[in-house]
Each structure stands twice: as structure tokens, then as C-alpha cells.
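stage 2 :: seqdesign
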């Protein structure tokens, strides 16, 4: 059922994109260098239990005035202080995506995410780390608010169609993924 909904969602996105290919959506006369857009997010957290630093830059290319295809990469460093010595973990991933501006300020977003996640296994006398890879298919929408000529803030909510409510280990706590960031160039990443 989920795969059927996912296929229907992608087919709808493609149909909307194809029907939006009119003169108003054309990039005719826009130099290729001005079609590149950059964005992403960053996170910092410091506390008595853990510290983390997260960076997730994105780069995309405007295929039309309303459609961007691109890729994001992510890296997160976490240091858990509740055990001695502290446990340092490194997560990384890559996410090819497409984003379609439905109408200002609303956009649709779909992506595939590969995430290599490291987690700690605490035993009575020692701490071990283990790595696990996750493949996720995410889709949803968001809003973008211009902050200047080529600068914008965006926020989006995505549904993880690959989420499993497993009592074991999972990279996400729920199927809902919320993101926010800054975009430079184009209508926004």
C-alpha cells in the first residue's frame, strides 16, 4: 500500500511538473551559472549529556523556474558524555532530491536518502559502537520566505515512507521529518 501511494505521489509530481512547462516557467535567457542554487542547514547542541554538530549543505540546478533537482550531503558528530570515556559518533549521508514550486510560498519536495548511522551499545563494563545504513524515501512540502534578492529561509515537513516502527534501532523517532534552512540563489533549496 505504501509503495502504491509513493508511486502515485511521484506520478503526480511528474504530471504537475510536465503541465507547468509553459513560457512563464521557462529559463530562456537565464545563464547556466545563475541556475545553480545552494542551501542547507546547520545544527549545534551542547549539554551535560551530549554535544552535537550537524552540517547539511545542498546544491541544486533549476531545470525550470519552478523545478529544481539536486543533492544534499549531511554529516553529524555526536559526543555522549554520560559514559566515561565519552563516546564519539559520526553519521553521514547523501540525498538526491527534486523540488517543485507549487505556488509562492508553497513547494513540494521528494528525495531518496542514504544515511550511515553510528550508535552506541552500552554494556556494563564497556561501550561499543555499531554502524547501520538506512535507505529512506521522503516526500512532502514546505514554505519558503525570501530574505533578500537571492536569499531565503525555508521550512518543510516530509513523510518517511520507509519508516519502520521497530522497537529495535531506527535512525528516526517517527515517520515525520521536519527541516529548516537557508537558501542562496533561485527560488530556494
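stage 2 :: out
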Amino acid at each position: 500500500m505504501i509503495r502504491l501511494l509513493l508511486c502515485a505521489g511521484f506520478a503526480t509530481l511528474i504530471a504537475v511538473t510536465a503541465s507547468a512547462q509553459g513560457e512563464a516557467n521557462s529559463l530562456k535567457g537565464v545563464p547556466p551559472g545563475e541556475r545553480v542554487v545552494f542551501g542547507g542547514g546547520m545544527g549545534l547542541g551542547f549539554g551535560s549529556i551530549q554535544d552535537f554538530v550537524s552540517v547539511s549543505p545542498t546544491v541544486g540546478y533549476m531545470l525550470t523556474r519552478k523545478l529544481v533537482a539536486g543533492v544534499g550531503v549531511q554529516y553529524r558528530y555526536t559526543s555522549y558524555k554520560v559514559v566515561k570515556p565519552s563516546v564519539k559518533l559520526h553519521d553521514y549521508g547523501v540525498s538526491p532530491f527534486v523540488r517543485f514550486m507549487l505556488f509562492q510560498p508553497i513547494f513540494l519536495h521528494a528525495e531518496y536518502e542514504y544515511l550511515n548511522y553510528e550508535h552506541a551499545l552500552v554494556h556494563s563494563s564497556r561501550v561499543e559502537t555499531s554502524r547501520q545504513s538506512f535507505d529512506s524515501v521522503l516526500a512532502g512540502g514546505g514554505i519558503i520566505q525570501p530574505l533578500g534578492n537571492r536569499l531565503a529561509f525555508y521550512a518543510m515537513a516530509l513523510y518517511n515512507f520507509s519508516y519502520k516502527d521497530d522497537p529495535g534501532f531506527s535512525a528516526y523517532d517517527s515517520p515525520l521529518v521536519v527541516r529548516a534552512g537557508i537558501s542562496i540563489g533561485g527560488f530556494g533549496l
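stage 3 :: structure notes
- The beta strands are 36-46, 50-62, 67-80, 87-103, 106-122, 127-146, 151-160, 176-184.
- The radius of gyration is 19 Å.
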